[in-house]
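Dear H.,

Thanks for agreeing to be a second pair of eyes. The structure we're designing against is below in token form, covering all 436 positions.
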């Protein structure tokens, strides 16, 4: 049977992995797809490097826009990253009737609504398994495997860099800065790690999963985002002593009033499987009404794990590229006319439990003042530690775990607590999830 002709835009880390895996496993992949899949052309700015990698197996060019207009190309794989040029190339490919496979989470989180609408008009597919959690097939699970379920919530460790840093901070009692330098030395963190450590990368991925889980448009701009740069080693130690571990989680939850969409450091009970995901690994926990909780675990980045997801999409598109749209899985799992604009709740309306650490003067009545303020906001305490001050010290830490409350109630309580003369500095507030 005639091969499917594929154009690969960008042959960096993931592009190189995709080329290598497709070449190595081409017979097995063809057996699954029903026909050979052939990379006919690679477009990359570094033409000489691209030629070294491809070794004459395909045409190499520096003109990606000419490639997406080539009538001989059936599928375009976009692996150049970024948003501006990638958006232009993907829309141009769609306009020329090409199916698209992409690993670009930022592109989809920011421009997915526009891209999917264009693909619907041109009757082509946009596949993006590799955009979330690398080689873990979480997109396919949400779009197909769990289609009988009403998804209730998703909680994921979806950034390997931050998970590695938090693991190092916990295991070796390192500061954030020291753990970050270690991650950079080992290649887990970029020279500029901002997208990872500030939670932006995780928010891109969460936005995509939330849209698929609940049948809503991409709404990245409404996601609440907090990173791990201000997390202190002492809070990791206190959490551990209380039976919790701190992970950077992306959480999206369906509620009667709307959808929660948030990324932030989170205390999780140490007994949960997801709390024991260490190093640069990823894990996504999905709760469906019929199946209950399901956990997806694996490598969230890297050349060949991500290539695995890219090629899985290639196989899917190859199988279905001649089918009409009624027989294809919709981009966001729900039929396009059934996608609804459910509101994303502001963080003030989110309900969760909290970890509080207060630095206070060591004198009678302090605890009573704090608990009175919490009670005024209808916040109840689940557990508490009051550390004995060292000899000669006049200040100590109070650590509290609360039951569930709305964020706006906790905001109001913290403002009053910090105004107490006996409280020194800012309160440390982290959110807690049982994930049961």
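And this is the sequence the design step returned. I haven't edited it by hand at all.
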């Amino acid at each position: 049977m005639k091969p499917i002709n594929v154009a690969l835009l960008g042959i960096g880390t993931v592009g190189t992995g995709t080329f290598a895996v497709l070449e190595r496993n081409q017979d097995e992949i063809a057996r699954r797809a029903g026909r050979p899949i052939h990379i006919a052309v690679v477009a990359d700015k570094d033409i000489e490097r691209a030629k070294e990698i491809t070794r004459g197996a395909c045409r190499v060019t520096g003109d990606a826009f000419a490639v997406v207009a080539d009538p001989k190309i059936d599928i375009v794989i976009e692996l150049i990253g970024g948003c501006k040029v990638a958006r232009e190339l993907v829309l141009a490919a769609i306009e020329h009737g090409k199916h698209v496979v992409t690993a670009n989470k930022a592109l989809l989180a920011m421009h997915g609504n526009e891209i999917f609408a264009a693909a619907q008009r041109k009757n082509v597919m946009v596949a993006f398994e590799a955009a979330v959690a690398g080689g873990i097939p979480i997109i396919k699970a949400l779009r197909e495997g769990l289609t009988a379920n009403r998804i209730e919530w998703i909680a994921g460790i979806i950034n390997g860099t931050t998970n590695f840093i938090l693991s190092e901070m916990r295991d070796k009692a390192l500061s954030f800065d020291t753990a970050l330098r270690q991650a950079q030395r080992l290649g887990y963190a970029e020279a500029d790690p901002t997208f990872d450590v500030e939670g932006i990368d995780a928010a891109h991925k969460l936005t995509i999963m939330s849209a698929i889980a609940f049948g809503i448009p991409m709404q990245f701009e409404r996601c609440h985002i907090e990173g791990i740069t201000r997390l202190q080693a002492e809070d990791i130690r206190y959490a551990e002593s209380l039976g919790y571990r701190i992970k950077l989680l992306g959480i999206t939850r369906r509620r009667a009033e709307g959808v929660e969409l948030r990324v932030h450091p989170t205390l999780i009970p140490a007994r949960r499987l997801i709390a024991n995901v260490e190093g640069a690994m990823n894990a996504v926990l999905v709760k469906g009404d019929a199946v209950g909780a399901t956990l997806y675990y694996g490598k969230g980045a890297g050349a060949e794990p991500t290539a695995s997801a890219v090629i899985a999409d290639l196989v899917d598109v190859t199988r279905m590229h001649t089918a009409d749209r009624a027989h294809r899985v919709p981009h966001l799992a729900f039929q396009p006319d059934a996608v609804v604009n459910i509101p994303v709740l502001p963080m003030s309306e989110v309900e969760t439990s909290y970890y509080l650490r207060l630095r206070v003067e060591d004198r009678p009545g302090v605890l009573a003042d704090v608990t009175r303020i919490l009670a005024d906001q209808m916040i109840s305490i689940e557990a508490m530690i009051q550390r004995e001050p060292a000899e000669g010290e006049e200040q100590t830490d109070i650590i509290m775990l609360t039951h569930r409350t709305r964020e706006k109630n906790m905001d109001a309580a913290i403002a009053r607590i910090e105004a107490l003369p006996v409280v020194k500095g800012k309160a440390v507030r982290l959110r807690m999830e049982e994930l049961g």
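Two observations from my side: The first strand starts at residue 4 and ends at 9. The chain has three domains: 4-135+303-338, 138-299, 351-432.

Warmly,
E.
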